[in-house]
Each structure stands twice: as C-alpha cells, then as structure tokens.
C-alpha cells in the first residue's frame, strides 16, 4: 500500500492547494481515509497534517471509516421528510440491524447514510443505492429493494 | 470555429412529416424507468421495420419519412410526479406514467393509426377530465415557461439541437453588437436579480467586476444546490447545459474574464456528466476556446465537483473550496467582484440567473420586463413538492400568488396517500433552511423578492414544500435546525453553538420534556444567532423556528403543556394499539408494518408489540376498520 501512497505523495509534493485532490486519491485507493495514511502522506509531502485532517473532516465526501459494498443514501430533504423519511430510515436500520451509530452492516454489504437532498423531491420519499435512485418508496418497497441486493450478492 | 457547420446546425429541423416520439430523461423520469421506455420504443419501431433516428445529425443523410421515425430524449419536462412522460409529434399527444410495456400500444395506436391511448392520458385528479395536450393541463396552463421551455424540448446531449433552436445566437449578437459597458447596462435595465436567493442586481454585480483593472478575472457558476427541497439547478443543467455555458460566456465578455468554473454538487452525477459532455462538445465546435465562436475572446470552463458541504453554496466559501481549502465563509467586503477566486475579480452567479441571460438578450429588455413585478421582473422557477397533487418543476412570473401556484398549478393539497384533500392545507415552506413557513393568510401575497422579505420569508433558491394537516410544525422546525446545525461550518460561535442549543430544546419539546420557558429561550437564541453570524447560513438559520413559533405557537404549547403532538407525528408522544373488537383480522396492518411488530392469525384480532413498534403510523394509515388506535 505504501507504494500507492508514495505515488500520490510524489505527484503532489510541493504543490500548494492540493489537499483535496490528495485526499480524493487516498480515498480512491483505499476506499476510505485511514488516519495512518494521512500521517504518512503529510510526512512525505510536507502538507501539514492539521490541514489534511481539517479538510477530511470538513467535507462529507470524505470517509474516515471503511464502508460497505453498497451505500444506501436515505434522502432527508424537506419533501422526503414530510413524506415519512424519518420512519423509512428507522425501518431500514432495523431491517439491517443497524443503529444511528453503527452504520455499516456486519457482513460489509451495506452502509447507510442520510443525505440532505437528492433533488428528486417529486418522487419522495427517495433513497439512492450507489448511483441508482429509488422513488415513491413505501416501507415494504424499500425493504424488498434491499433484499434484492442481498440476493444478488449471495448468488 | 467551423462557420459552415454552425450554419448547417442552425438550420437543422425535424421535418414536419417525420413522426417523433419524445421521452423525458430528467432525473425523475429516469428514476421511474425512462431508459427502459426508450429501449422499448426502439425495439417495437424496429420490429415494424422502421429506421429509428435518435439524433439530428443522422437526419442529414437522406431519409424517407414513411419508413423512418425519430426517437428523441428530452430534458426535464416538469411534471416529475407523473413520469415517465412521453409525447408524440407532430400531433403533440401527451402521455403520463408510461411503462416499457406501453410502448407497443403507443406505436400501434397513436403513431400508426393516430388514435389515443386513453388510459395513458393525463387525468385531472379532481374533475376526472382527460387532457390530450400539455397546453390544456392546468399544471402547464398556469405557468410561463420561458427559461424552462427549452429543457423540455431539447436533447441535452446534442449541441446541434441547442444551436438549431437559436442557441449561441445571443452570444454571437453580444460579441458583434455590444461592448461590455452596454451589456452590463442592458442586464441592469432588464432588472435581473440573482436567482440564488438574495436577489442582488446581476447587472450591478457585473459592472463592479468590469470596472476592476486586472489581467485575470473569473466567472463562476454556482450549482452547489444544497437546499433540501430544491432541484431547479439540477434540472436546468441536466436539461439544457449549453444555456449555462452561453450565460457564462456572456458574463465573461461583460467583465473580460477568460476562465470559468462550474461548481456542481457531487450528489448530482447526471448533471456533472451532461455538463462535462456539453463543455467538450462546445470546445470541439470552437465555441469555447482561445477564439470563442471565431472571435478574439478566449474562454475556458472547468467543472468542479462539490465535496459535500452545504455552506459552500455561500460564495466566499465556494471560492475557498475551489482553491482547495476548507469551505468557510469570510467577511465581506471585499466582495468577490473586488477580490474573488485566487484573489482576482470574480463574478459568481447561480445557474438559473445565468440561463436567463441569453433569454434577455433574445427577448430584449422591454419584452422580458413584461412578466413579473416592477422590482422583480421576469419569471422564477420553483420546485413544487410535498403534499400537493402535481409535484414538479414550475416557472411563473414573479408576481404570481401562492394561491395560483398551490391550487391552480399544483392542483391542490394531497393527503398522505397522494389523494386530493380539499381542506387539507396547513402550511407551505419556502426558501429551505433559510426560509419560513407560510399559512393560508399569505395566499394572495405575490411571490417576489420584496414582498416575501417583508414578512420574514425569502424566495431562497426556490424550494416550495406544501404541508398538509398531518404535518407537525415542531418537527419541521427541529428538522431544519438539525440541518443547519449539521452544516454550520463552526467559524462563528453563535451559529456553531447557538444552533446546537436550539436543536436540543426542540428535541426536548418533541420528546414531551419541554418547559414553558423554552419558547422564550428559543426566541432569545434566535435573535443572538441572527445578530452574531457572519454569513447567510447563520443569519437565516433561526427563520424556520421563528416563523413556526409565530404562526403555530399553539402546536408548541400542546407539546409542552399537554404533552401531546396534535398531528400525531412525534414518535415519543404517540403510541399505537389495536382495538380487538373492531379488528377483523384482515392482516393488512401486519403486512404493512416495516418492523414486523404486529402479530395475529388471519380473522383473529391482531396486537402490536410496543417493544418493537417504532410508532411510524403505517398501520393507522392503512386500517380500513378504524381498529388501530392512536394515543
């Protein structure tokens, strides 16, 4: 892995304003941002660790923990909220044995996140799994979509 | 710049006698299955032996109208709730909720025989009348779609289609007939005000940047549409990306900038993809580049994907983000026009503002000012969503009233199952987390910048969420406070900690643990946050709480004094049980329970296990025998 990190460090050494692309590349290579990798990159590039850490924790795009193979984003936009998104998220969590703190399932299949708005308000309530949008959800419909992903994984 | 090809594209037309099936490929329709619908049309048409053309460039080869059909993918047509949307031309017959399996009927009946497939026509949910064309449907009839019109007709992936409909003509006219000074004056005279929320004069903004002496200037398109409940920028980029480019190029000419950035939310993958494609096409056509449109003006555009921080919609934070820093706002002045991106003079406009610019050039100031009011001329796009029959993207003159929008265009308020609820209106939320909840008493207020500001609300980016009587306003206030609390960048103490304290109080009230002094505390904190925050996020964060406190104070009091949620929403204050006498054992509730908390054999009374129940109310809503009791 250090080989990949070395390559990233070499590419951005002594370039100012490159913290965001550096973090993006680390996340692309490792799936998430491991604090150890940040320390390593900081040593190699001279970008202060505080700057990297500050940016990594500022933007929701960066993840500090390993994530599941499929990411469920339950929309919490206003239209989804008034259509029962709060209950939908609770139902999905319960179905996957997750809580507000524990967001990745034990089998590593799903990570659940809440997102401010997916901009598909006409189809509320909405969730996005990876890049696919599922709209006009009922509890049953949402859970059966999840089961489809589970079945696909097991076959 | 290939002048010959440009001229050829300008004259590209689908011949009158060539039948065309247009399928909407906006995000809403795609999520409802538009891709499968397009594939089905192609398959069936080919089965009938037709040659299927899917882009204007294929038209230049000779074709024979009797053996050829055109299959067109358009941008968002607005009526997202009824998608996928399909129309058949030249007759203009309009179908809603089309599924792949319906393609054969539409081809056989409508395309081949000219007959209607009546069950796919739009049916008025109240009067039950069927409408054949969009112009007869109240949703479209009440609108003035001038900025959005192109989006519903054009193929967003075709530069040729954009040019054929008059695209890049405004830019050409500006290059040949105007100098930057007169261009800024024209936009000022048109009265265009920023559509991102604040409503600052666009012409004045450009003029300030134009006057700065600098070898380098920038134009930024702000497409970091973070407001929950707003999707107008997303739809414009997805439906008409070249109009964004044209608007930016005109702005660049006005201030003599040679470089532009489009900052798009990463949550909008389709918008990013279509924007990149449009830029690449405009570059290879010689429209963007060192000699833009064959002139001596250079202009290049880069797309930057936002990294997921709402505060980056604030202009100084957005520029910090492009520069690779934490997206935190800074004090203004200096304004971006003076010291902007990388310290250079910068014009930063929202998507809707920029696409309005070419329209103003084409229409002329006088014609443009005919819509809207004197201080807010033109039209505004709103995302109409929530408990309303016709949800979708609408465009109306800026003096339209809430009554017209909700009752005429929106078709009235709906219940939780989407059925018409005549007396169901409770509130409408305008302007997202910075906005306010308005009530029936505001129904005849014109929706322009000044009159909304006058009552403590704002146009914001244009999200408009209708709420029926089953909505708890304390929960709405807590919802927005949770949002701003999450998104506060942390720079100003009152925004960082004040919003947290307000949220804690709201959460407590929702749990039935509120005390009467809480309401006064909320108002005090709100005043302090407004007075002591640097940017718009903090300054407006308390608005949803203040407006609900003003218009729905009795609901807060019911939570605090009676420990009761009148709308039955707050989970800690409601519990559900089943009346064994009334229950027929139909099993409907058990089948709809998302957490399997309901047990019982068929035809026997059921019961709810309170340990598993999440108080979502699904059983209460579906029971046909009023056997589920809410307390």
Outline the structure in words.
The complex is a heterodimer of chains A (155) and B (631). With 155 residues, chain A is α+β, with helices and mostly antiparallel strands. Chain A has 7 helices and 4 strands, in the order H-H-H-H-E-H-H-E-E-E-H. Chain A folds into 2 domains: 57 residues, Orthogonal Bundle (Arc Repressor Mutant, subunit A); 85 residues, Glutaredoxin (3-Layer(aba) Sandwich), CATH 3.40.30.10. In chain A, strands 2-1-3-4 form a 4-stranded mixed β-sheet, covered by helices on one side. The longest helix of chain A is centred in the C-terminal third of the chain and has 16 residues. Chain A is elongated. In chain A, 41% of the residues are buried. Chain B is α/β, with parallel strands linked by helices. Chain B has 26 helices and 20 strands. In chain B, helix 8 runs parallel beside helix 12. Chain B has 5 domains: 125 residues, Glutaredoxin (3-Layer(aba) Sandwich); 209 residues, NADH-ubiquinone oxidoreductase 51kDa subunit (Rossmann fold); 93 residues, Ubiquitin-like (UB roll) (Roll); 87 residues, de novo design (two linked rop proteins) (Up-down Bundle), CATH 1.20.1440; 56 residues, 2-Layer Sandwich (Alpha-Beta Plaits), CATH 3.30.70. The chains are: A alpha+beta (155), B alpha/beta (631). Chains A and B meet through helix 2, helix 4, helix 5, helix 6 and helix 7 of A and helix 2, strand 12, strand 16 and helix 19 of B.
């Amino acid at each position: 892995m250090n080989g990949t990190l070395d390559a990233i460090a070499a590419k951005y050494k002594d370039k100012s304003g490159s913290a965001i692309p550096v973090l993006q590349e680390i996340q692309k290579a490792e799936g998430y941002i491991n604090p150890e990798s940040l320390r390593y990159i900081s040593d190699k590039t001279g970008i202060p660790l505080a700057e990297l850490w500050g940016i990594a924790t500022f933007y929701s795009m960066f993840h500090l923990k390993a994530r599941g193979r499929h990411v469920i984003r339950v929309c919490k936009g206003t239209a989804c909220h008034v259509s029962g998104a709060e209950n939908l998220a609770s139902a999905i969590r319960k179905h996957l044995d997750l809580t507000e703190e524990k967001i990745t399932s034990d089998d590593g299949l799903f990570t659940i996140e809440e997102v401010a708005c997916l901009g598909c308000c006409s189809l509320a309530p909405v969730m996005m799994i990876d890049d696919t949008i599922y709209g006009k959800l009922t509890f049953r419909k949402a859970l059966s979509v999840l089961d489809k992903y589970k079945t696909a994984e097991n076959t | 710049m290939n002048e010959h090809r440009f001229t050829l594209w300008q004259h590209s037309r689908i011949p009158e006698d060539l039948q065309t099936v247009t399928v909407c490929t906006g995000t809403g329709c795609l999520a409802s299955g538009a891709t499968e619908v397009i594939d089905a049309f192609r398959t069936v048409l080919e089965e009938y032996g037709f040659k299927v053309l899917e882009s204007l460039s294929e038209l230049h080869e000779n074709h024979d109208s009797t053996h050829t059909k055109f299959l067109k993918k358009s941008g968002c047509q607005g009526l997202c709730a009824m998608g996928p949307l399909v129309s058949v031309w030249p007759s203009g017959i309009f179908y809603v909720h089309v599924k792949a399996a319906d393609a054969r009927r539409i081809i056989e009946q409508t395309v081949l025989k000219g007959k209607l497939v009546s069950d796919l026509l739009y049916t008025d949910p109240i009067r039950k009348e069927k409408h054949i064309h969009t112009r007869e449907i109240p949703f479209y009839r009440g609108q003035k779609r001038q900025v959005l019109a192109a989006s519903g007709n054009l193929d967003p992936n075709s530069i040729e289609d954009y040019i054929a409909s008059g695209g890049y003509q405004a830019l050409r006219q500006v290059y040949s007939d105007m100098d930057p000074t007169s261009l800024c004056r024209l936009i000022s005279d048109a009265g265009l005000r920023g559509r991102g929320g604040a409503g600052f004069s666009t012409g004045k903004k450009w003029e300030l940047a134009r006057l700065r002496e600098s070898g380098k200037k920038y134009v930024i398109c702000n497409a970091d549409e973070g407001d929950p409940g707003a999707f107008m920028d997303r739809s414009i980029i997805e439906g008409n990306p070249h109009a964004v480019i044209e608007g930016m190029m005109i702005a660049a000419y006005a201030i003599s900038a040679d470089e532009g950035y489009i900052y798009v939310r990463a949550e909008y993958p389709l918008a990013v993809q279509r924007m990149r494609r449009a830029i690449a096409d405009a570059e290879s056509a010689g429209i963007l580049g060192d000699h833009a449109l064959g002139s001596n003006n250079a202009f290049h555009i880069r797309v930057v994907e936002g990294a997921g921080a709402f505060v980056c919609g604030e202009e100084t934070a957005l520029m910090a983000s492009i520069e690779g820093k934490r997206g935190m706002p800074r004090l203004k002045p200096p304004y971006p026009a003076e010291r902007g991106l990388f310290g250079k003079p910068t014009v930063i406009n929202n998507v809707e503002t920029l696409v309005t610019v070419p329209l103003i050039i084409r229409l002329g100031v006088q014609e443009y000012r005919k819509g809207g009011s004197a201080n807010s001329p033109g039209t505004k796009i709103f995302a109409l969503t929530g408990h309303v029959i016709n949800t979708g993207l609408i465009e109306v003159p800026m003096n339209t009233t809430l009554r017209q929008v909700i009752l005429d265009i929106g078709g009235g308020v709906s219940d939780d199952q989407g059925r018409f609820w005549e007396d169901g209106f409770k509130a409408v939320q305008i302007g997202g987390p910075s906005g306010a909840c308005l009530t029936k008493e505001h129904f005849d207020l014109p929706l322009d910048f000044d009159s909304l500001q006058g009552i403590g609300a704002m146009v914001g980016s244009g999200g408009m969420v209708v709420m029926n009587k089953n909505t708890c306003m304390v929960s709405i206030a807590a919802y927005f406070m949770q949002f701003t609390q999450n998104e506060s960048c942390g720079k100003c103490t009152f925004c960082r900690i004040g919003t947290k304290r307000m949220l804690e109080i709201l959460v407590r009230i929702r749990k039935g643990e509120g005390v009467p002094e809480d309401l006064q505390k909320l108002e005090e904190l709100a005043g302090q946050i407004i007075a002591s925050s640097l940017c718009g996020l903090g300054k407006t964060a308390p608005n949803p709480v203040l407006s609900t406190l003003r218009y729905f104070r009795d609901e807060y009091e019911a939570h605090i004094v009676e420990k009761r949620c009148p709308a039955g929403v707050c989970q800690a204050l409601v519990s559900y049980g089943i009346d064994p006498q009334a229950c027929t054992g139909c099993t409907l509730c058990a089948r709809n329970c998302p957490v399997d908390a309901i047990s019982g054999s068929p035809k026997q009374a059921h019961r709810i296990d309170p340990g598993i129940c999440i108080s979502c109310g699904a059983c209460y809503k579906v029971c046909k025998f009023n056997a589920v009791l809410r307390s």
